[in-house]
Amino acid sequence: MSGWLINPIDVAVLAVLLLSAALAFVRGFVHEVLSVAAWAGAVVVALWGQPLLAPSFRDLMPKFPWAGEAAAAAVLFLVALIALFTLTAMIAKQVRKTALNPLDRSLGFLFGLVRGAVILVALSVGVSWIMPPDKRPDWIRSAASMPLLDRGTTVAVSMLPDSLRGREEDTRAKAPAAQDQIETLLDAGRAVQDAGHAVQNAQSHFERLADPQPVATPQDPTSPTGYGNGQRREMDRLIESTR
């Protein structure tokens, strides 16, 4: 990775930030904030309404009561999400028609940057659980954005509940063993693949031995073809003698 002009981690970080900021700039701050609120509202509606609607769905699927409960939550979530998204689009459309549209887009751009940073920190937290900093390759540690991601990861982990932090430590402790198991499985897969190739080669060799193909002797282009002059004279003499 030392031959790269720009570290791939830095490219990915920049792409996430710019994509999130561009989408938020196009949609506007009001639309983005209300979209987040719509997702949260749909989750709340599903959690609060599921106990009320679940009995009806369980009656429709008596053999699978858990499926009825899940279906009730899913229906409530989707209905609430569609309704809230429709309301969000209507409000954002009205805002774009006013003089606040430039301010709405500018704030949306900043909101998109913040959202992209949150997404990157969340991904960094997940990666840090699996791959601790001291186990990372040099090309990851050399990324210019890695110190900022590590700082954000430290802040995010410090805000987690003790139960989740305990899981993080447990996952990090089990990560080396999991990586060893993955490498063992990969080695086993390569060995099986090599064995398959060896079997195919042996089978093709056996088929060639069982059904050998005749090898045609190449003809010398300088050798004469047909009968020679002497052979023709002998044949003419034989024909004359039989008359």
TrEMBL record:
- Give the InterPro entries listed for this entry: Colicin-V_CvpA (IPR003825), CvpA-like (IPR052719)
What residues form the membrane-spanning segments?
34-54, 66-87, 107-131
Q: Name one GO biological process term.
A: toxin biosynthetic process
Q: Name one Pfam family in it.
A: Colicin_V
Cellular compartments per GO CC: membrane
List the membrane topology term(s).
Answer: Multi-pass membrane protein
| Predominant localisation class | membrane
Cellular localization per UniProt: Membrane
* Ranges of biased composition (kind: Basic and acidic residues): 231-243
Q: Region (Disordered): which ranges?
A: 197-243
Q: Which UniProt keywords are listed?
A: Membrane, Transmembrane, Transmembrane helix
User: Is Membrane among this UniProt entry's keywords?
Assistant: yes
* Protein name (database record): Colicin V production protein
Q: Which organism is it from?
A: Pararhodospirillum photometricum DSM 122
What phylogenetic lineage does the species belong to?
Bacteria, Pseudomonadati, Pseudomonadota, Alphaproteobacteria, Rhodospirillales
